[in-house]
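Long-time lurker, first post. I've been practising inverse folding by hand and with some scripts of my own, and I keep getting stuck on stretches where the structure tokens seem ambiguous. Below is the full token string for one chain I'm working on. Before anyone asks, I'm not after the true native sequence, just a reasonable design that respects the backbone. If someone could post their per-position residues I'd love to compare against what I wrote down in my notebook.
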């Protein structure tokens, strides 16, 4: 099968398979704070790390949502790790709520103070990355047409890890059981790892 994204046969593919192909995608469970001190927590599946020295992350927002608006105001955010144990609470924070409603409180999550940035982190999450905003980039198509998508780039300035998941100096990713977004309403959970060593030549 071959199709052009805007011309697919909807009788064969009633739902766009793009997210099922670009999968699994890590979930950036983003805490942000407005200039007024309002707290927002929302999951973003267009999220990833993009550099290791320094640690850089990005997430894409389809629409200029509260997370992006708050980060634009205060230039700080936190990426919390979404895990199997927290899947239902993470999903609750995806609800489209009015600006100013605290999703952490609504989902029954505990706030924990960050060390360097002002937005709090999710206390129940085994890992959190405190970030300073580098830039928010409005996207466009290859021919210059604006797209209502905004990509926030951040630099990690602080890292929280639950000591239970550090084994012999390494983070035990599988033990934390992070979840990732796939297509449609589907998710994946990381609970098993395998190792490949990159060739030297």
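-- Answer (accepted) --
I ran through it position by position. Result:
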């Amino acid at each position: 099968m071959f199709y052009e994204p805007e011309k697919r046969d909807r009788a064969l593919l009633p739902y766009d398979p793009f997210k099922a192909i670009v999968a699994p995608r890590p979930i950036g469970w983003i805490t942000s704070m407005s200039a007024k001190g309002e707290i927002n927590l929302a999951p973003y599946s267009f999220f990833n790390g993009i550099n290791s020295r320094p640690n850089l992350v990005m997430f894409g927002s389809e629409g200029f949502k509260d997370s992006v608006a708050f980060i634009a105001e205060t230039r700080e955010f936190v990426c919390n790790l979404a895990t199997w144990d927290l899947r239902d609470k993470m999903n609750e924070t995806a609800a489209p709520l009015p600006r100013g409603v605290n999703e952490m409180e609504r989902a029954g999550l505990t706030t924990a103070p960050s060390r360097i940035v002002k937005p709090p982190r999710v206390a129940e999450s085994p890992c959190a990355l405190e970030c300073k905003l580098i830039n928010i980039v409005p996207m466009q198509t290859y021919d210059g047409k604006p797209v209502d998508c905004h990509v926030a780039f951040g630099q990690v300035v602080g890292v929280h890890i639950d000591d239970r998941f550090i084994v012999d100096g390494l983070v035990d990713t599988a033990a934390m059981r992070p979840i990732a977004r796939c297509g449609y309403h589907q998710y994946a959970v990381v609970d098993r790892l395998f190792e490949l060593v990159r060739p030297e030549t």
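A couple of notes from the structure itself: The first strand starts at residue 25 and ends at 26. The mean pLDDT is 97. Happy to go over any region you disagree with.
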